[in-house]
Design a protein that fits this description.
The complex is a heterodimer of chains A (148) and B (164). Chain A is α/β, with parallel strands linked by helices. Chain A contains 4 helices and 7 strands, in the order βαββαβαβαββ. Helix content of chain A is 29%, strand content 22%. In chain A, strand 5 (101-105), helix 4 and strand 6 form a beta-alpha-beta unit. Classes of the chains: A alpha/beta (148), B alpha/beta (164).
């Protein structure tokens, strides 16, 4: 069964990530997020956590990267999907290096330009998406619709 | 504390006035960012504008956010997982240039965290319900599914590289 790792930070990113769930019907899902409270919301899917880190705190970011790498090495996902932010970047970065198919869907909150993590993830994303038509470009990000 | 915000661009006296009257009636603590609104509240604390840090603190401290249907406010509340009551501005009352706030509000209502009310009466009902410990009634929220094209595009992309 195709293993899909769904990665996001908490809050709006998580809400949006969950709305993609119908796309992965029949696949094995592994959620990775920063918020332990979400564990009981994912049903039968697997659930893993990573440290919360903003880009300003270098040690936390490093720790986040290490834990994410550990999860990816253990899970060996076929597909990695993220809506943001830092955890998603590292998941796509390591996932791509280990041969997974990677998908980035930038948060609908980013109306004027792609998020910083989204821009950083572009090199590591096989499918790089925005949720706003006016931000789409022929060479990416592409627009294929929005989560709402 | 209930945090009220109307954004920075346009006044929204109707919302501020309704919240002021409600605070007078119930004695609840309300803080409002009132922007260019002309109405001067008597029963709630308010400031025209907040810097980003203050805005964040008020959002964090609030048990409930009451706001116009501004994108920034909606996303800020959603990112913090705060319950949010939205009263869209009405162009017909001169509160905005067009009716896009109603459209935005109904799109975001689908996330399940946004409670959209049409007018002051609806707002009163939402606040009364909140005081009894209620959450936004999710069954009342029009469910907007993620765009089928997006779901299909992701599914096809996974399939196209030999998975599934």
């Amino acid at each position: 069964m195709t293993k899909v790792m769904l990665v996001s930070s908490s809050g709006g990113h998580w809400v949006q990530l969950n709305r993609l769930r119908p796309a992965f019907e029949g696949m094995e899902l592994i959620y990775v997020t920063t918020e332990e409270r979400y564990r009981n919301t994912v049903g039968l899917a697997h659930f893993l956590t990573v440290p919360d880190a903003s880009r300003w705190n270098k040690i936390r970011v490093l720790w986040l990267a290490v834990v994410m790498l550990w999860h990816i090495l253990r899970v060996r996902p076929d597909v990695v999907v993220s809506t943001g932010a830092a955890p998603g970047f590292f998941a796509l970065f390591f996932g791509k290096k280990l041969g997974a198919l990677t998908i980035w869907l930038d948060s609908i909150a980013n109306v004027e330009e792609m998020s910083m993590s989204g821009k950083m993830a572009s090199k590591h994303a096989d499918l790089w998406l925005t949720q706003w038509q006016h931000l789409a470009r022929p060479d990416g990000p592409l627009y294929k619709g929005a989560v709402l | 504390m209930i945090f009220v915000t109307v954004g920075e661009q346009l006044p929204f006296d109707r919302l501020i006035q309704a919240m002021d009257q409600w605070a007078q009636r119930t004695g609840q603590e309300v803080f409002a960012q009132v922007g260019h609104s002309d109405f001067k509240p008597c029963y709630i604390q308010y400031k025209p504008f907040l810097d980003q840090a203050e805005f964040g603190q008020k959002m964090e401290a609030a048990q409930l956010i009451v706001a116009h249907a501004g994108m920034g406010t909606i996303i800020s509340a959603l990112e913090r997982g705060k319950p949010l009551v939205v009263m869209p501005r009405k162009a017909s009352l001169g509160e905005h240039r067009n009716e896009h706030q109603s459209a935005t509000a109904s799109r975001f209502a689908a996330l399940g965290h946004v409670w959209v009310v049409d007018d002051e009466q609806g707002l009163g009902e939402a606040l009364a319900f909140f005081l009894t410990g209620g959450e936004p009634d999710r069954s009342q929220i029009t469910r907007i599914e993620p765009s089928a094209e997006l779901i299909q595009a992701i599914r096809e992309f996974i399939r196209s590289v030999g998975h599934q």
